[in-house]
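Continuing the batch. This is chain 6 of the set; chains 1 through 5 are on the previous pages. Same settings as before, nothing changed between runs. Recording input and output for traceability.
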Amino acid sequence: MPVVVFANPKGGSSKSTSALVLAQTLASAGARISVIDADRNAPLVDWRTGKSRSSLQVIGEVDQGKIVRAIEAERARHQFVFVDLEGSASQLMTRAVSRADLVVIPLQPSGLDARQAARAVDLIQIEEETLGRPVKFRVLVTRTGVAIATKLERKIVADLKTAGLPVFKQHLHELQAYKAIFDLRCALDELDPKAVPSAGRAILDAQKLADELVDVLTEEPAGV
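Output for chain 6:
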């Protein structure tokens, strides 16, 4: 079953938010989802301590010595396995990437984040040489404006495409609903739209992103 790894050497790039939003969206559609929280801060383990009715399973306390076994064990039991990594370039990251069917590189639209995302791509390419096979990846632009993209956002996306990096069409916009699911430890579809007005928009955007993710996972390799 597909393994999706969320990686960026820079912290604060919305890796955990991206992983949780996509995982719970697919789980809401009936998919069997497991998330391995390999971040030392364990934000997804903390989320799972809430009362959410989501079927999403979260596995914690996974270090570099356990990550490969954990991925393979969860792959055998679930339709999708998501791996949320800490914000650092480490052996944990390379071990997880070695088992990935797709690496998602979240980044905020800033020059610093773009440079760190490029570093993540470099690490993936090094791992490709070690494995002797390509590792599929996509950049996910996060925390963008909902209505109108700023000049900086447009420039960052254009620069990524000019550099030949594959980018998700759908962004993970800056919406209060994505913060609320962590604060309330619930799923997007469990939010009260009266208390969190952006819940409806967040659900629609998350579904578009989840659909695109599935399309990327199922697309044929170039040349096939």
